[in-house]
């Protein structure tokens, strides 16, 4: 298997079978393959930040090395790298190490995305003069991130001196926490406030976090007043991010807002053929049409299908046919189906929103006021979103009894009726847990 990126698809599939969906989506899905040296028996993987690297080293390195051995039948040592300062501009412009893919040339334009595409192209050709900020929204897997990278790549191509800074909304929060912990906020602010172009993916995840929103507001203001370009993506428009600070919502809405809808069948076929061309795999027309008729709402699923066809062709030499892609499509759709809402997912989302630890939330020992409120919210949401009995919910929170769980649910229900902000926060948590 000569192409490391194609092999990485198979390695990821191996990992998915050995861990929960939440753990995979949080830690493995954000890894990008960088290099593979068979002579040194070493694989280098790019991860978003040092916190991510430490977690992988501690919890998932053994699993990753097992997956490499399963795929290559050889012991491969895994090494993690992060976008360091001296390569920041290069990696933040093209964070996926897949620049040939994420350009305007490789973006298939159709009725569902032509307005957003035109807006992005205008911004790339005339940064901070066309639309600033530019806010893209739409469901997952429709091409928002592709357009985000395409803008960065186009600006960098036109002016190599431009500093392009890319970050995901939740990573902005993680970096902020890490910087506060290490007392190096000046470095954090220099990274974001001195960029020529700021690209923020999934900005909805900063909602509900006061310190993160405060820092992001000042970052936004600094860049905007300095006439630097800001591009944001989200799964919903600003007015529907109910936990977003009003100041930020106003800033997000003062530029251009463009939505992206699921592609029609002609666009889906064109996407499949373009991806196949990029990956140097020939897919017959009838197979392209079959895929397009069965994978309808998500471009990422279309791309994943083509990648698996390529990987399967490399492994066993089988040519693509309708029969051979049926199982691939089934796997892709099953893997991309939103995972069952679990206690773990809800408590992780509540902990992230209120900036507390999952361990404190579920502990029977920590009864402090700053934990009890978020804990009651978590119990309320678990009661709403799962089929667990109140007795079972109590067991999940350090063995609390039924009356304590009922009190938490009743208290939160009453608070929501009086506090519209809390109600919005809880609705947002529920929406994030459902996606």
> Can you write the helix and strand succession as a string?
HHEEHHEHHEHEHHEHEHEHHHHHHHHHH
- β-strand number: 8
Oligomer: single chain
Low-pLDDT runs of 5+ residues are 84-99
Largest sheet: 5 strands, parallel
Strands across the major sheet, in which order?
5-6-7-4-8
Number of helices: 21
Q: Rough shape?
A: globular
Radius of gyration: 23 Å
Label the structural class: alpha/beta
How many angstroms separate the termini? 34 Å
Content of β-strand: 5-15%
* Overall mean confidence score, pLDDT: 84
Q: Roughly how much helix do the residues carry, as a percent range? A: 55-70%
Give structural notes.
The protein has helices at 4-18, 21-28, 50-59, 61-72, 88-93, 114-125, 144-158, 169-182, 185-193, 210-225, 246-253, 265-278, 285-294, 299-316, 322-336, 343-354, 358-362, 369-385, 390-396, 402-418, 420-434; strands at 32-37, 42-46, 77-81, 134-137, 164-168, 197-201, 229-234, 256-259. Mean pLDDT is 84; it is low at 84-99. By secondary structure, it is of the alpha/beta class. Helix 10 (210-225) links the parallel strand 6 (197-201) and strand 7 (229-234).
Quick tags:
435 residues; alpha/beta; five-stranded parallel sheet; three-stranded mixed sheet; 8 strands; 59% helix
């Amino acid at each position: 298997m000569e192409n490391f990126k194609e092999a990485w698809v198979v390695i990821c599939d191996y990992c998915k079978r050995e861990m929960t969906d939440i753990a995979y989506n949080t830690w493995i899905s954000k890894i990008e393959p960088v290099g593979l040296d068979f002579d040194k028996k070493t694989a280098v993987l790019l991860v978003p930040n040092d916190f991510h690297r430490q977690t992988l080293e501690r919890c998932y390195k053994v699993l990753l090395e097992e997956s490499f051995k399963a795929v290559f039948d050889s012991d491969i040592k895994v090494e993690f790298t992060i976008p360091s300062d001296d390569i920041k501009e290069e990696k933040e412009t093209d964070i996926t190490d897949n620049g040939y893919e994420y350009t305007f040339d490789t973006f298939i334009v159709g009725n569902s995305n032509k307005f957003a595409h035109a807006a992005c192209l205008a911004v790339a050709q005339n940064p901070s003069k066309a639309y600033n900020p530019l806010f893209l929204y739409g469901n997952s897997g429709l091409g928002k991130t592709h357009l985000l990278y395409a803008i960065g790549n186009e600006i960098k191509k036109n002016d190599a001196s431009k500093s392009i800074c890319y970050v995901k909304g939740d990573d902005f929060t993680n970096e902020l926490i890490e910087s506060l912990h290490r007392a190096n906020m000046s470095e954090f602010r220099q990274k974001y406030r001195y960029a020529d172009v700021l690209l923020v993916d999934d900005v909805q995840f900063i909602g509900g976090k006061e310190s993160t929103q405060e820092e992001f507001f000042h970052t936004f203001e600094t860049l905007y007043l300095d006439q630097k370009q800001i591009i944001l993506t989200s799964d919903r428009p600003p007015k529907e991010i109910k936990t977003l600070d009003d100041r930020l919502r106003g800033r997000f809405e003062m530029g251009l807002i463009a939505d992206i809808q699921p592609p029609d069948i002609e666009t889906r076929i064109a996407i499949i053929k373009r991806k196949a061309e990029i990956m140097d795999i020939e897919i017959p027309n009838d197979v392209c049409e079959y895929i397009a008729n069965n994978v309808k709402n998500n471009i990422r699923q279309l791309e994943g299908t083509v990648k698996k066809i390529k990987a399967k062709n490399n492994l066993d030499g089988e040519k693509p046919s309708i029969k051979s892609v049926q199982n691939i499509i089934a796997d892709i759709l099953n893997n991309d189906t939103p995972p069952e809402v679990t206690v773990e997912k809800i408590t992780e989302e509540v902990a992230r929103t209120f900036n507390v630890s999952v361990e404190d939330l579920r502990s029977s020992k920590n009864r402090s006021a700053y934990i009890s409120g978020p804990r009651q919210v978590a119990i309320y949401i678990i009661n709403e979103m799962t089929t667990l009995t109140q007795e079972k919910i109590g067991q999940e929170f350090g063995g609390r009894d039924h009356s304590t769980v009922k009190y938490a649910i009743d208290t939160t229900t009453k608070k929501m009726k009086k506090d519209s902000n809390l109600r919005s926060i809880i609705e947002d948590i529920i929406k994030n847990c459902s996606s």
